Amino acid sequence: MPIIDAGISAATGGTCLGAAGVLYVADRLPWINRLSAKIKSPQIQVLLVLTASIGLVSTPVGQLLNRVTTAVDGFIDGLAGQWTGFGIMFALALAALLWLISDFMTGVKTRTLLLAAIAPPLAVMIPGSLGEGAASALGFIATQVGSLVMWLMGG
Q: For the chain: N or C, fewer Cβ within 10 A?
């Protein structure tokens, strides 16, 4: 990943995480709560945390996570079977994503914010080329979101 793409992804992630934090605090302040309730703040917070997590795992840190889990999976393959690590991580990532979607549709809770934060890292931690592909796809998404924000700001 080129350094400029990693920078855009990290900046996008940091900005979204900061904005989600501001909205989270604004929801708890009584005098701002009336305004933030009108703009579907909990759903926006989830999307911002999800975008932040995507932005942060699409940097070289996400590639490192994939390499480490692939190496650990290679070690475990000899002990527990060839597809054990892949199956466990794929099941965890899929369960987190489905639970996130379910919570998002039925009502945002603190658990939903946590799921939005951990779903992208779990996808990147799938061993082998599928996790590597997830990291690349998430990097592409983060770069496009960052480019869109720059374009909207006139940059």
A: C
The whole-angstrom separation of Cα 8 and Cα 144 is 9
Q: What is the pLDDT of residues 63-92, one digit of tens each?
A: 888 888 888 888 877 777 667 778 888 999
> What is the token pair recorded at 130?
């599928």
Average pLDDT over residues 46-71: 86
Please, are residues 84 and 142 in contact by the beta-carbon 8 Å criterion?
no
Of 15, 16, 112, 121, the closest CA to residue 58 belongs to: 121
pLDDT digits (tens, 9 = 90+) for 18-40: 888 888 887 777 776 666 566 66
Neighbouring CB atoms inside 10 A of 67's CB total 14
| pLDDT at res. 7 | 79
The contacts of residue 78 (CB under 8 Å, 6+ apart) are none
CB 12 within 8 A of CB 149: yes
Q: Is the dihedral of CA 2, 6, 11, 13 positive or negative?
A: positive
